[in-house]
Design a protein that fits this description.
By secondary structure, this protein is of the alpha/beta class. 48% of the residues lie in helices and 15% in strands. It folds into 2 domains: 379 residues, Glycogen Phosphorylase B (Rossmann fold), CATH 3.40.50.2000; 283 residues, Rossmann fold. Strand 5 and strand 6 form a beta hairpin. Bound molecules: pyridoxal-5'-phosphate.
Length: 821
């Protein structure tokens, strides 16, 4: 271990503040702190920077060694391609994985500041929207920790996920300049820069051997500049790489204009190139069809594949016969699926492989993960955009499609409708490229992210593809890393678990099962409660500061944090809060268990209904909290700017986790797993991974309600929300309050769209249908929470049963069944 070696060296070097190289953590911290202007003044931000740089330096040796080892191609190398990596902060996680926490605390002593405060100064790397991006981040941690050779490829957005402010109850978006103080973790590596072409036209030519080739000419080229971030494994010396691409202008930009004397115009045109990686698109589960987004996708895909191929050619030459044994590309949704025709282009146009060999390589290295069934999230790009921006790529897609449609014709002879239905090109007034179809056709593996999700994919959306190629389809239920989501974010529970079980659970979460044997132990129960209470006290401070609402840690903490989307049904939660409010005002308080309800999450800036739900939550919160009688029993807050760092404080402090999506709509969910690991009980529908959580923990430790996916489907077409409203006096009262304008007295009619949505027979989310069942489940929650000892046992059971939802388990599945790494 490097830490031990360093300790030995430090004995002789610790007193030298300017030693070179300075390889102990405290030595380099001193060095970085004295590298300023030599005065005593420093900001806490500088101290964070110095510590992060020192920690990074500790990784450099192992980082280099990991690379050297991986470039010998003894094991398969995985490229994880994703437009999003929602990493959050890196310092705390690095210290945990590298076992440098004690050393850091000691090194910080002379600055009279504690580690937690320094950690809080790091800006979140918010390069993702929500679950999909966070999954990529959890996977990177698991791969490194399981000693799998993986490179994450992504985009170095200048502006990450917007910061959310709440003004008068409305969401306001603020740009997230996460790089404003610099990024101490990244290393710019110009030797890995590549050129990505756009626009231009294609040209056929005959080479000296008489072969017909195609070249893509008159292109507008953009530099992809490589920035590497270290991904340390958990105490195993492996440091993987997250390589993020930044777009830059080439040096010979617009030489023509330059020569005509338009020097300033030419320099200004740099902007066009640099726009590509300027900002993350803030749409979760919906596509906006903007051309710049497609540019980002191609930019990432091309840069990453060129990087892989350059590496191969450097070590193995231009014989690609062993390539497919050495590489696999996992596509995180269809966002990077343009990598498929791009790999074909590079192999055929640049390395002159025949089509069949190139296709064989492509189809044995590409694997696609689907993340959603929502039709609005399925990517389709107008053919016209491709024609202009990526003419060579479009030709290749046409060729792939023509050959593939031959197979379709074979499988369904004489069925012309099938050809149109399954074509990668959707015909119509505006023809489109169907990216999911392209991904399925070219991938050897197509996976869903939870059992139900995969089942719905193969029986619905992708049924015909499943008929054609059943062997491609498989399920890999999502998971979350127990390093960040338990060991790091919940040090109190961590210490308790380790004291009871040893620390093996951090690498093998199934060890938590052993808790079941001691779940009756009175001292464990007491300590478990003490931990939860202390975590709730901590969260209370955050809520007071961020929302101006005083939560009471003796009350139940009932939490729903996730992106705001109609299918996730924050509305159902808000309606239940209104119901409790009404009950309390009516004096029906006997059965009420005091609770603090927290909702948090961002709405896509263009998603009006989601933004209105935020407004409703804030208005209801205002009414609830300003009524002194009500707030004895109920408090309600909307937390602004939900992000990874917020979740690290929230999930350890939650009693009840709300996972209440309309059945069949949430592909998996991962927030649900973070809560479960940290001992929250779940109130939830039979959706996504909730189903598997319920299986693990048992019905007696889970609050199940609502229609299942089949029932939702069968109700569609003759759904009558007004019948459900009439049948429930509680829902009727809630609707009356809402319709009376009680929550918007000075803002007449603003919530009408929400009221209409609830009462619409075509409401896809069927909120009214599930209200009564949800309310009854909440009554059971309240009864269960009264028996604090039994609640605690249920909480222990949830943590104990969460082993299956470690992303280590998920990654073991990818490794063994897909990557064969
Ligand atoms: C885990 C996580 C998510 C995903 O939450 P779901 O409840 O699964 O939608 C989204 N955002 C952040 C910041 C997360 O940490």
């Amino acid at each position: 271990m490097s830490a031990k070696v360093n300790k030995g060296k430090r004995a002789t070097k610790a007193t030298l503040s300017d030693c070179e190289p300075c390889d102990s953590l405290s030595g380099s911290l001193t060095r970085y702190m004295s590298n300023g202007l030599g005065n005593e003044e420093y900001s806490e931000q500088q101290l964070f920077h110095a510590l992060a740089l020192s920690v990074r330096d500790q990784m450099l040796n192992n980082w280099r060694q990991t690379r050297t080892k991986d470039s010998q191609y003894q094991t398969k190398h995985v490229a994880y391609l994703s437009l999003e990596f929602l990493m959050g902060r890196a310092l705390g996680n690095a210290l945990l994985n590298l076992q440098l926490e004690d050393e850091s605390r000691a090194a910080l002593q002379q600055y009279a500041i504690d580690l937690e405060e320094i950690e809080s100064l790091e800006h979140d790397a918010g390069l993702g929207n929500g679950g999909l991006g966070r999954l990529a981040a959890c996977f990177l941690d698991s791969c490194a920790s399981m000693d799998i050779s993986v490179t994450g490829y992504g985009i170095r957005y200048e502006y990450g996920m917007f910061a959310q402010k709440i003004v008068d109850g409305y969401q306001i978006e603020r740009p997230d300049r996460w790089l404003r103080d610099g990024n101490p973790w990244e290393v710019r590596v110009p030797k890995h820069n590549v050129i990505v072409p756009f626009f231009g036209r294609t040209q056929v030519y005959i080479d000296k051997d008489g072969r017909r080739n195609t070249s893509w000419v008159d292109t507008q080229d953009v530099v992809a500049a490589a920035y590497d971030m270290p991904v340390p494994g958990y105490r195993n010396d492996r440091i993987n790489t997250l390589r993020l691409w930044k777009s830059e202008a080439t040096d010979d930009f617009d030489l023509k204009e330059f020569n005509q004397g338009d020097y300033t115009e030419a320099v200004a045109s740099k902007n066009l190139a640099e726009q590509i990686t300027m900002v993350l698109y803030p749409n979760d589960t919906s596509e906006n069809g903007k051309e710049l987004r497609l540019r980002q996708q191609y930019f990432l895909s091309s840069a990453s594949l060129q990087d892989l191929l350059n590496n191969w050619v450097m070590h193995q030459g231009t014989d690609f016969s062993g390539f497919a044994k050495a590489y696999v590309m996992q596509l995180n949704d269809t966002h990077p699926s343009i990598a498929i025709p791009e790999l074909m282009r590079l192999l055929v146009d640049k390395y002159f492989l025949g089509w069949d060999q190139a296709w064989s390589i492509t189809t044995s290295t590409m694997a696609y993960t689907n993340h959603t069934l929502l039709p609005e999230a399925l990517e389709r790009w107008p053919v016209r955009i491709f024609e202009q921006m990526l003419p060579r790529i479009l030709e290749i897609i046409y060729e792939i499609n023509a050959r593939y449609l031959d197979d379709v014709a074979h499988h369904w002879p004489g069925d012309g409708k099938m050809l149109a239905k399954m074509s990668i090109i959707e015909e119509g007034e505006v023809p489109h490229v169907r990216m999911a179809y392209l991904a399925i056709v070219a991938s050897f593996s197509v996976n869903g992210v939870a059992g139900l999700h995969t089942q719905l994919l193969t029986s619905g959306l992708f049924k015909h593809f499943y008929d054609l190629w059943p062997e491609k389809f498989n399920n890999r239920t999502n998971g979350v890393t127990p390093r960040r989501w338990l060991a790091h974010c919940n040090p109190r529970l961590s210490a308790l678990l380790t004291a009871r079980l040893g620390d093996g659970w951090v690498k093998n979460l199934h060890h938590l099962q052993k808790l079941k044997d001691v779940a009756e132990d009175v001292t464990l129960l007491t300590k478990w409660q003490e931990v939860k209470l202390a975590n709730k006290v901590d969260l209370t401070h955050m809520i007071a500061k961020e929302c101006g609402v005083q939560f009471d840690p003796t009350m139940m903490f009932d939490v729903q944090v996730k992106r705001i989307h109609e299918y996730k049904r924050q509305l159902l939660n808000i309606l239940h809060v209104i119901h409790l409010y009404h009950q309390i005002q009516q004096g029906n308080t006997d059965d009420i268990v005091p609770r603090c309800v927290l909702i948090g999450g961002k709405a896509a800036p263009g998603y009006a209904m989601a933004k209105l739900l935020i407004k409703l939550a804030n208005n209801v919160a205002h009414m609830v909290n300003s009524d002194p009688l009500v707030s004895r029993y109920l408090r309600f807050a909307f937390l602004p700017n939900y992000n990874v760092s917020a979740m690290e404080k929230i999930c350890p402090a939650t009693d009840l986790s709300e996972q209440i999506s309309t059945a069949g709509k949430e592909a998996s969910g991962t927030g649900n797993m973070k809560f479960m690991m940290n001992g929250a009980l779940t109130i939830g529908t039979l959706d996504g991974a909730n189903i598997e959580m319920l299986e693990e923990v048992g019905e007696e430790n889970f609050f199940l309600f609502g229609l299942n996916a089949n029932e939702v489907t069968s109700l569609r077409g003759h759904y009558d929300p007004n019948r459900f409203i009439a049948a429930s006096s509680d829902l009727s009262h809630v609707m009356e309050l809402l319709e009376s304008g009680h929550f918007n007295l000075l803002e007449p009619e603003i919530f009408d769209p929400i009221i209409h949505a609830i009462k619409s027979p075509s409401d896809p989310w069927m909120t009214a249908a599930d209200f009564e069942s949800y309310r009854l489940a909440q009554v059971k929650v309240a009864i269960a929470y009264r028996d604090r000892e039994n609640w605690t046992k249920m909480s222990i059971y949830n943590t104990a049963s969460s082993g299956r939802f470690s992303s280590d388990v998920t990654i073991a599945g990818y490794r063994d069944d897909i990557w064969r790494a």
